[in-house]
Amino acid sequence: MTREKLFAVLLLGLLAIALSLPQQPKSKRPTPVFKQPKTGGLLLPDNATLIRENIVDTFSCQDRIYGYYADMENECQVFHVCMPQTRGSIRWSFICPGETVFNQATFVCTQTESSIPCEESEKYYVLNEDIGKEVEEEEEADQDRGKKNATKILEPEVETVSKKSFSKNSRLLSEESSFRL
């Protein structure tokens, strides 16, 4: 009987050790399923073919700067985000919701009638160069505000904001009109 008690104590000890070891937490969220054949090799959700049939994968981020790019081969319903790396580049692909296309001039999915023509999207790829850049007018306004604050001459905050908004909007409108010429 002592053997049985020794065996039971040993078994309980091993069970206690096994239960005290850290375990991998199991995710309760389902893993999205990506199916390659239906979307032409792009990693899009498997319901993407409900929005657009016959999705082609010909777009390349090779030699492109960081930015957002309309996929004209897919009639701008698909767009890509390119991120250059030291060896090659990384590409993320997205599909716009039904009845919308990617507007390269504004970097958002919009109704087709509110968007630029898809075939003109390549002209707007240059707008990616402005991502992350500060506008010189804003820098000058910030410096002017700093000088005025130092001499205790304060402008109303609303006026400053409206000046910034106007200068940004007028710059964007002038850039957009230069592309349409």
- Biggest sheet, strands in spatial order? 1-2-3
Q: Which residues form runs of ≥5 with pLDDT under 50?
A: 158-167
Distance between the termini: 99 Å
Number of helices, counting only DSSP H or I runs of 4 residues or more:
4
**Overall pLDDT score:** 78
Identify the overall geometry: elongated
The radius of gyration computed from the alpha-carbon positions, rounded to a whole number of angstroms, is 28 Å
The class by helix and strand makeup works out as alpha+beta
Helix fraction bin: 25-40%
Q: Note the main sheet.
A: 3 strands, antiparallel
Q: Which strand-content bin applies to the residues?
A: 5-15%
Tally of DSSP β-strands: 5
Region (Disordered): 135-154, 162-181
Domain Chitin-binding type-2: 58-120
Pfam families: CBM_14
GO molecular function, one term: chitin binding
